[in-house]
Amino acid sequence: MSEIRATNLRMTGFSLPSLGLNMLVTAVFVFLPPLYANHVGVGAAVGAIFFAAKVVDMTAAPLWGLFMDSYSTRWGRRRPWLALSAPILMLAIFMVYNPPEDAGGLYLFMWLATLYVGWSAWTISHTSWALELSRDYDRRSRITGLLQAMTMIGGILIGGGWAIMQLQENVPSLEEAASVISWFMFVVLPVTVIFCLISVPERKTANRSHIGFKKGASVVFKNMPLLRLLLANFMISFSTYFVQALFVFFVAFTLNLEDSEGFILIFLLVGGLLGLPFWIWLSERWNKHNTMQMAVTTGAITSLLLLVLPPNAILLTTIIFLLVGLNSSANEFLPRAMMADVCDHDHIQSGSERMGLYYSLLQTSSKMASGIAIFIVMSVLGILDFMPEMGAENTSTALQRLRYLIVGMPVIAYLIVIGLMWRYPISREYQRKMRGLIEEREKIALKNSLAGS
Fold first, then answer.
1. Tally: H helices and E strands in the chain
2. Do residues 79 and 204 lie in contact, with contact meaning Cβ atoms separated by under 8 Å?
3. Residue 439 vs residue 233, higher pLDDT
4. Is the model's pLDDT at 207 over the cut of 50?
5. Could you tell me the pTM of the whole model?
6. What is the tens place of the pLDDT at every residue in 346-380?
């Protein structure tokens, strides 16, 4: 069965776990660094703790991918692990967003690492399942685009909830806001999993013998399209997490719009949602790698607007962050859609379908980028003479340096991506040739299987 077709309603139900995913991503990288640095008192060590937890996560992700690829159950290769990840995430979310008074660096590391491990199981199982629904070059873009739409809506819900809390007469503290959002995610995550599990089946493939570790690793490390995509995804993710880690500090203190961060965050996410249909349309009329080049070029140009954004201008700030967010949806769904095509390339070389492993490698590159981004942010702030605990009392020079930082690093990352995608080898035509070869192999394998039985 090479294609899984379902109604729009069922595909919407299937995509719901992505709603919870961006709630989690946005909440982790926007709330937790300032929560633990400023309010819990961990200070600049937050960056090192995030990075250490990411090391645990980066070890777990490929193991999850290999395990899911290698062992199928009566319920499928992906579904059981998505169901298992929900309670792990629920426990970790509750603990990390509701720290006790004596919480310190060890507490943050332990529960953040647990959250990351559950997050890996969640995303690898769900996204691998999604990427395996189709082998069509353009339908893969539409499927991952639907997942990305849910992702953006989830982020908007988090930002909207935060904005509503900030509009109240008694504005809740960051600790109170984080606790409310954690309870919201605590309820939403298992509900989205249930809807997903009953919406769409997994695609069945012909049984194949597992290749040895040495051969499998050799195929991976010689896969140049994979290595280029992983590095491009690393740079894109680094840019995203770098901006998210600085978002609260920049908006609250450089722009002097404290208590409006949630409202402004909504427009950053709405920009991504508005841009999504255009990027899907462009990827279907152009190649995905060319669309990625256009998206990051747009991101680099719009980021420059932050250099001239004056303080205390909430209307202008919301408009500019809307523009800055336009390319963000492409940054997320295009690497995933392209990874499915890279997996076809691996399938030709290895004779095995290893979507879980390959998506886990993509996810690992994002995780490495997020850990490094937060580590750099929290380490560099002191070098720039910016002290998070001083807030708006920092010097004007330090606040201006924060502005240069939130613009400069993402622009550099985007320029590297443009170079990496230059003459990228997997085009629509090449992928369709690979698809024909894979389907012919599967027909032969199926005939042999029937003849043997």
1. 16, 0
2. no
3. 233
4. no
5. 0.80
6. 888 777 778 888 888 888 898 888 878 878 887 88
122 close to 89: Cβ distance less than 8 angstroms:
yes
**In this predicted model, what pLDDT tens digit does every residue of 243-266 receive, in sequence order?**
888 888 899 889 989 878 878 888
- Other C-beta atoms within 10 Å of 337: how many? 26
Q: Closest Cα partner for 79 from 237, 253, 198?
A: 198
pLDDT for 283 equals 94
Q: How far, rounded to the nearest angstrom, does the alpha carbon of residue 210 sit from its chain's CA centroid?
A: 29
DSSP string across 88-108: HHHHHHHHHHS--TT--HHHH
Specify the DSSP class assigned to residue 351: S
How many other C-beta atoms are found inside a 10 Å radius of the C-beta of residue 415?
13
Query: In the chain, what are the domains?
Result: 18-202+217-447 (1.20.1250.20)
Alpha-carbon distances, residue 208 vs 71, 72, 299, 354, 406 (angstroms): 12, 12, 42, 11, 48
Radius of gyration in angstroms for the set of CA atoms belonging to the chain, rounded to a whole number? 22
Quote the Cα angle for 395-400-403, to 5°: 140
